[in-house]
Amino acid sequence: MKSLRRDFSSNPQAANVSSxxxxxxTKSGKVQKIVRELYLRQDIPCSSKLCxxxxxxxxxxxxxxxxxxxxxxxxxGTASFPRxxxxxxxxxxxxxxxxxxxxxxxxxxVIILQTVLEELKNQSLPLYNRLVALIKTDEKRFYxxxxxxxxxxxxxxxPEESINDRNDRAVRTVxxxxxxxxxxxxxxxxxxxxxxSIVVITDDKENIRKxxxxxxxxxxxxxxxxxxxxxxxxxxxxNESREAKETKGARGExxxxxxxxxxxxxxxxxxxxxxxxxxxxxxYNYLEGSVNVPAFGKPLLIxxxxxxxxxxxxxxxxxxxxxxxxxxxxSTKIVDEEAVTKNDNPDAEDNEEVVTERERxxxxxxxxxxxxxxxxxxxxxxxxxVGIIKRxxxxxxxxxxxxxxxxxVNSGRRQQNVFVLPMDKRVPKIRVRTRQGAxxxxxxxxxxxxxxxxDSRYPTGHFVRSLGELETKGAETEALLLEYDVQxxxxxxxxxxxxxxxxxxxxVPASKDDIGWxxxxxxxxxxxxxxxxxxxxxxxDALHARPLPNGNFEVGVHIADVSHxxxxxxxxxxxxxxxxxxxxxxxxxxxxxxxxxxxxxCSLKPHVERYAxxxxxxxxxxxxxxxxxxxxxxIFSREAFSYEQAQKRIDDPSQKDELTQSMRTLLHLSKVLRxxxxxxxxxxxxxxxxxxETDNDEVGDPLTDVKTKAMLATNSLVEEFMLLANIxxxxxxxxxxxxxAMLRRHxxxxxxxxxxxxxxxAKKRNLELDVSSSKALADSLDHCVDxxxxxxxxxxxxxxxxxxxxxxxxxxGAHAESEFRHYGxxxxxYTHFTSPIRRYADLLVHRQLASAIGYEGEDGRAVIEGxxxxxxxxxxxxxxxxxxxxxxxxxxxxxxxxxxxxxxxxSEKMSVGGVDSGIEEQGYVMRVFENGVVVFxxxxxxxxxxxxxxxxxxxxSVGGSVEExxxxxxxxETDFDSEEYTLRVWEKGQADPNRxxxxxxxxxxxxxxxxxxxxxxxxxxxxxxxxxxxxxxK
Amino acid sequence: MPLDTSTxxxxxxxxxxxxxxxxxxxxxxxxxxNPASSGSSYLAMGxxxxxxxxxxxxxxxRGEAGGGAGNAAGAVVEVDVNIAxxxxxxxxxxxxxxxxxxxRIATTLKAxxxxxxxTYLYPHSTISIHVxxxxxxxxxxxxxxxxxxxxxxxxxxxxxxxxxxxxAGMSGSASTARDPKNDELDPLLDLSLPEEQELxxxxxxxxxxxPVGEDAMDDDxxxxxKVSLLNMDxxxxxxxxxxxxxxxIDGCTQIREILEGVIKGSNKIVVPRSDIL
Lengths: 1034, 277
Hints:
The structure holds 2 protein chains of 2 kinds. Chain A is α+β, with helices and mostly antiparallel strands. Chain A has 29 helices and 36 strands. In chain A, the strands form 11 sheets. In chain A, strands 10-9-8-11-12 form a 5-stranded antiparallel β-sheet. The longest helix of chain A is centred in the last third of the chain and has 41 residues, at 870-910. Chain A starts with 16 loop residues before the first strand and ends with a strand. By secondary structure, chain B is of the alpha+beta class. Chain B has a single domain (5-276), classed as Ribosomal Protein S5, domain 2 (2-Layer Sandwich). Chain B contains 7 helices and 9 strands. In chain B, strand 2 (39-45) and strand 3 (48-59) form a beta hairpin. Classes of the chains: A alpha+beta, B alpha+beta. Chains A and B meet through strand 2, helix 3 and helix 4 of A and helix 1 of B. Chain B: It comes from Penicilliopsis zonata CBS 506.65. Chain B: One of its GO terms (biological process) is TRAMP-dependent tRNA surveillance pathway. Chain B: It holds the Pfam family RNase_PH. Chain B: This is Exoribonuclease phosphorolytic domain-containing protein.
């Protein structure tokens, strides 16, 4: 019997085969031992343009191309490295300073080691992705060197050597090899004197010491950056957590309980004693969080900072339910972090308590209330956070709390701690160490959170960059986009390369034999027109109708054929799928697709031929659908109307041409369709929307730009046919792709969502809200009217809308067919098909529909793409749901900001003697808290908190600055009735009913709206809309 | 989390074990490892190692499917594949019968060798091949083909040429049409397990065609190749298929040279090929 031992001696190549053995544990807790082969080689290039050896051996890819060399032959240097340097960062340097490496001013010619990349991927996936993106860009000259595969730089782990030590050694080995290699490569040439230094960047002191012994240049990130120009700004960008830990050592008491170990949490979750969910924070009270867990129908409350234990809104947390005696009712108070923790000192940690005395008091009061007279406010189960599964920290936009910068503002380079107040109210303030405290005050800045340790009350983070002055248009717009994660960078070249080469000169091919006409129907003779908001450039849809000989009508909806221009999986398609949707801000549109397509080639502009995707129905005069047909087509739109123009043309009896007639037909049919939909139980929901027209110039009152949206019959004309098209297409693609069809659903909201609203209506108005079905809800909403208060109905609809879940995209295989229902539209199935220029979902649906009807496309590829895999689709759904939501938030925030600016502009114009008198409007009470109310002002579409000091008692005048009013707050006394939803406010000691103000839910109140800037103190420079309650009307 | 090929390959043109796109793993083989059988072999492609034994041609037992005395046309090839419980990362307990993976390999091998071998020389008999996978690290089917070929040569069963198997994949998901202007994906040869799990791949098995007529007299080394086995479980856009096949076939040629070296190097007397014909 021969031995089966692997015999390396006989094979000359075998000497270069090494193996890597490592142990990993899987999600389920299993430990696996992995053995991988490593083939060591000597043809991995150093990629330096100085090198004369490597180009000869550098291997080619399958097409014979050799990757160009990356590292410059004249790299930048610093004072200590006059000949320039190549940087070799270790993993920690990247973990702590990724923001630095992304800078454009410094950090060029960087060698990223395989060892480092792999370690980084293990430690932080987002940072890994950022680093990969950096390596891919050419201008930063980052080179990924696979050191583990190069014979000379491969390092075998010694016995007793820790993995970190081994990796550090690998980094040093590479540095030494590079140095020797470059010297050898340039010996006896002109370039001999040009060899740059190889600088290892590491934050490990031991590593630096060993490097010194081995004659390798090594610097800590701090020391390296200190030698650069602009070092103050750059130094601020180093991750704080590590450094702080080192300096602080074991000092300081621990404020927060320790987290459970991962295995303990997992066991608990599996056993059902612990629960996992996403941590949400109430927008009105930063100390009140809630977590929705699958085990219970209602979210569990997390009250106070102790219990939320360093969780930040959005984190995936594990929670434990508290004993029953600690159950509480949700807060009836508005608690604002800024107000409560006003005087915290960012430097002081010694006397710091997790829960300040004031906070504790605020909580106790609530408990008292909850346990007092609670008939309706029964204590609810509360829980505490015992561990974090996944942090969802991102970069936060905020501004430096000017009160925290300390007295020695001009202390130059001295590092100091400041607090950064994030724009997102649900995120606690972030402690940031900076050397530029003074300059940063009054700026919008971007920061990230690095850590939140047990011994620190607030999370620590570091400064990333400044967006500009507070309240400047550019800074605020960028802040908005960053805050809602909107991709606003210009399209990269790879994307623009996917555009048709003809540019704006692209035309529908004249000859029908052209490949572009393949599978297309010629609909150029139809009288097609489009109806859109005024000034619309990206026209997605156009319509036509004509009578048929049998008395029925042919109705067609024609949608821009975007899928013709955006081919699957090319860079443009990938970019669009990441962006997900076009974002509309008041003065800016962030496109999903490049302008050329969105506003020209795809846009169904009038008087030009365009490719379209058409849905054509035969309908009876009663709007019964006889048949539906789908086809790719070529259309010639006759006219592009705005809603008003279309309405005028329809209403004008002198217009008798065919186009007008067909529009009248459409209008008639749409009314029938709408009625049918309403009968089926579609909800007529309301959202507080205003529109802003920016074309007005500086003249007059800026507030005239703010308009509430008007609904014309032509709006609903277009809407009805779009709904019809979406529904028809949804059934078609579902029948073709039962597993992968891209659909949209709106889940039936659970009845408990409406509990509070039902209760409020019953109490205050004696109205009943029947939520058993969408039909019942629609009917009972119709009954919610108040003769004296016409807006009441809209208010109830707005509130009802907030009780519902939001609609979402999903792929058909993910839910049972009964779950497909769109609750709001009362349709059993729904999708988005009609706006492919601005929504990625529609583009996908176009591809699926094309595939479902057997359209082959120009090259026969369309068919294959329709049948995408479900996994991929689910990823896309997740992304576009997220983008869609964020786009809505960003749009709303933009309007809110604009209204604030308009108010400001007005106050500057109208103010007399520096005092702004504000503008009087009507508002409606949406929510009543113990120390304030939330008022909605329909004129501006804004809602705002009105605090005690902002109640004008009889006899008070509007005037008075913010600070003056603030002092009033302590003198106010209130009587809050949580069952009747009323709040009475009066001056201390003057409880006379004539001198007090009483407000109650749903009440119409007279308010004074103005824009104020806080001066002095903590919130300095922050502008907000202030609402004063002037008095109430019954 | 380890790195993945589709991200790092475009950056470095190196695969995760340090190979280039067109490099085989280290292939080592021995024949006549088990004297108790008619023919045997041990083959390792990287960390995939396989033992194979051949019994027969022997008289077919009565009652066996297709075998027995019934098949006068030629020998029946029977293949039995056993993947050891310790072959992969997670130790698996395998109860009795074979699992899906091993029975699929067995069926493929049976079909390939049934038509490949000169079975007509042995009517009413059975050739049984037993494949034991000792360690699985990708390209299992290809390695099994090669091991079987060696064991069959060792057993002295006549065949027209060596049947060699190899895998080929693409360095990305390759789910959409290839863009000839901007070809980012490279074909990869001889995939290891992590690559196989991440990327699309196919297994191709080739043999040299039987030289007939004029060619028979040619001692030309530039032999014509015949694909006798092709197996793909992944989804790939058809525009990539040709590239993958070409690379796979090229890999088979390299493997053939190695296997021939193994056969010639062993102390077993192998009948020179030209003498068979």
